[in-house]
Design goal:
Blueprint: H1 8-16, H2 21-32, H3 51-61, H4 64-81, H5 92-119, H6 122-141, H7 150-182, H8 185-210, H9 215-236, H10 241-246, H11 250-260, H12 274-292, H13 310-314, H14 323-341, H15 346-349, H16 351-357, H17 364-388, H18 391-418, H19 425-440, H20 445-452, H21 459-488, H22 491-511, H23 521-529, H24 553-568
Helix pairs in contact: 1-2, 3-7, 3-8, 4-5, 4-7, 4-8, 4-9, 5-6, 5-7, 5-21, 6-7, 6-9, 7-8, 8-17, 11-12, 14-21, 14-22, 14-23, 17-19, 18-19, 18-22, 20-21, 21-22
Length: 569
């Protein structure tokens, strides 16, 4: 845990008794508003007060259902197209491109989202993302009814997949940033984790419908899942107050904060409401950031460097050259690298191939539905884990569990291949347990940290860049899976490889991963700046009931008279 979080409340209380009335008011303000970029922890155990925040966050995250359906669509599309009775016959190369192209289109969509969310706002960007999504699903659903040859039909479907990938990425990145900016600290992790939970729900929907209907009907229904979240966002959810203040829309920010704080009671120590106090906090932060971007007074030509130019300092890219920018990016790169090559997404994209390689005869659709349900259920549990437990222990437990079950699965796979065992069900059970352990930490926490680790001035751009980086690493891992399996010596060897990478994740979390549980965003920034807990030589005052009464001249004289009187008696 960051040492800055230890005793910060006690230090503030100790200083309060020695400060002026203005400073006392400022301390009370800090107690109510725990962060300039996240909402109050006032009455943290009262969920009723946080219901508007929870509603706004989950509604914004509901667009993640679309990306879950888009990712799982290939699992339904490919086997139906490759079936002998299919009216559309595509080659293995063509179906593989249709399956994987979405992974490449997501990073592009994230970069577009980084620009749009700073220009148009978080929620307007989500609404705009519905346009390419709907266009993509329309192209996929109508591909075979356009009287085109097979090759042209392939290109239509491929372009439709690109559009759905772009739309999904454009809509999901602003949702994560929005949640970070409206959720109070004790609920932030759980609400951010709602995004992958809803994506898992989208995968379950896709798998379940694929078992009973064709891929065209699934494409038509996906349009509904795209439009409904946008309607709810437009009618019920206010824009991020952080973004509104940054653009000078103070009145709109005040209305947004009133909605988010409407269930909170009035603080007793001030006449201001919590929404007014938070609005003041955001305005002060904006002024502070503006002053920090100005040139120092002692500027001289001899001390000028390109890094010190006003244009560079005022740009968002300057934030990536500070410790609060490049340190989180480096940590996230290696964390996502470990995540992808631990096999989490490889086993999802190659689920059917994976079970065929180990000799399992379980129905592929049934296995995919079980995996989707397992992911969804564990996502719900993970929201509770993130609310109750620290991030680093969760990643470590996740890595240890994944390593154990993958080692067991690899061992049984080898025995099955050698003919020494017929327990083909063991790798299937291990696979489900592997998904469970991955959902505890290593799958969800890296995505959560893409929004938690970066400062406000670069959070939108940094989240999109890190999100794009993760998807590029995912594309690389998925594409080298077949060659890596052959190089290592078979399906049992790749499972041993996954187990080894999972162990690396444990040590990485122990040595390098910062703890963000219960931290204010300002404290996370201080961690990367290298600030340490301020030392104080002031001794703690004893409680009043343990203090000895001070002796004055009057009390001494009275005690002497009492003693003399007792002696005379």
């Amino acid at each position: 845990m960051d040492p800055l979080s230890i005793g910060s409340s006690a230090l503030s209380l100790n200083q309060r008794f020695e400060e002026t009335e203005e400073q006392k008011s400022e301390d009370a303000f800090r107690e109510v508003i725990t962060s300039c970029r996240s909402l109050s922890t006032y009455e943290p155990n009262n969920l009723n007060s946080a219901l508007p925040q929870i509603f706004a966050a989950t509604t914004a995250a509901s667009f993640h259902i679309v990306i879950g359906i888009s990712l799982a669509f290939s699992a339904v599309f490919v086997p139906q197209v490759e079936d002998e009775d299919s009216d559309l016959r595509l080659t293995v190369t063509q179906t593989s491109w249709i399956s994987s192209i979405i992974v490449l289109s997501v990073p592009v969509g994230c970069l577009i989202a980084a620009i749009l969310m700073e220009w148009l706002g978080r929620l307007k960007t989500i609404k705009l993302a519905a346009i390419p999504c709907v266009m993509g699903w329309l192209l996929i659903a109508n591909a075979t009814s356009m009287d085109l040859d097979v090759l042209s039909t392939f290109w239509v479907i491929l372009f439709g997949r690109i559009l759905t990938g772009l739309g999904s990425a454009i809509g999901t990145s602003p949702a994560i940033v929005y949640i970070t900016e409206v959720a109070r600290p004790d609920l932030r992790g759980s609400l951010i984790s709602a995004a992958p939970t809803l994506a898992s729900l989208g995968m379950v929907i896709s798998y379940a419908k694929g078992a009973f209907m064709g891929w065209r009907m699934l494409a038509w229904l996906s349009i509904i899942y795209t439009i409904v979240p946008v309607i709810f966002i437009h009618i019920f959810v206010p824009e991020s107050p952080v973004w509104l203040v940054s653009k000078g829309s103070i009145e709109e920010a005040a209305r947004s904060l009133k909605f988010l704080y409407k269930n909170y009671p009035q603080p007793e120590h001030t006449a201001q409401s919590l929404s007014d106090m938070h609005l003041t906090s955001l305005q002060r932060e904006k002024e502070k950031n503006f002053r920090g971007k100005n040139m120092p007074k002692n500027f001289s030509v001899t001390s000028f460097t390109p890094m010190q130019s006003e244009g560079f300092r005022s740009s968002k890219w300057a934030g990536f050259f500070r410790p609060t920018g490049y340190k989180p990016m480096i940590i996230l790169f290696f964390l996502f690298l470990i995540q992808q090559f631990s096999g989490i997404y490889i086993t999802l994209f190659y689920a059917v191939t994976f079970f065929n390689d180990i000799g399992s005869k379980v129905n592929a659709y049934h296995v995919s539905i079980c995996i989707g349900i397992t992911r969804f259920v564990m996502s719900l549990c993970n929201a509770w884990f993130l609310k109750k437990f620290k991030r680093r222990p969760l990643v470590m437990v996740s890595g240890i569990g994944m390593a154990i079950v993958m080692f067991i699965s690899g061992t049984f796979t080898k025995w099955i291949k050698d003919g020494t065992s017929q327990q083909a069900w063991v790798p299937v059970v291990c696979m489900l347990l592997y998904v469970c352990f991955s959902m505890v930490g290593l799958l969800t926490i890296p995505w959560t940290m893409t929004a938690e680790l970066f400062p406000n001035e670069i959070r939108g751009v940094a989240h999109s860049i890190s999100y794009s980086m993760a998807n590029i690493l995912m594309f690389v891992a998925i594409n080298v899976y077949r060659d890596l399996t052959k190089f290592l010596g078979g399906s049992h060897a790749i499972q041993y490889f996954f187990a080894g990478v999972s162990i690396i994740a444990v040590f990485f979390a122990l040595l390098f991963l910062p703890e963000t549980f219960g931290k204010k965003l300002s404290e996370i920034e201080d961690h990367f700046r290298g600030k340490s807990k301020p030392k104080t030589t002031t001794k703690p005052k004893k409680p009043i009931h343990n203090r000895k009464p001070k002796q004055t001249l009057q009390t001494v004289n009275e005690s002497e008279k009492m003693m003399n009187g007792a002696e005379n008696v």
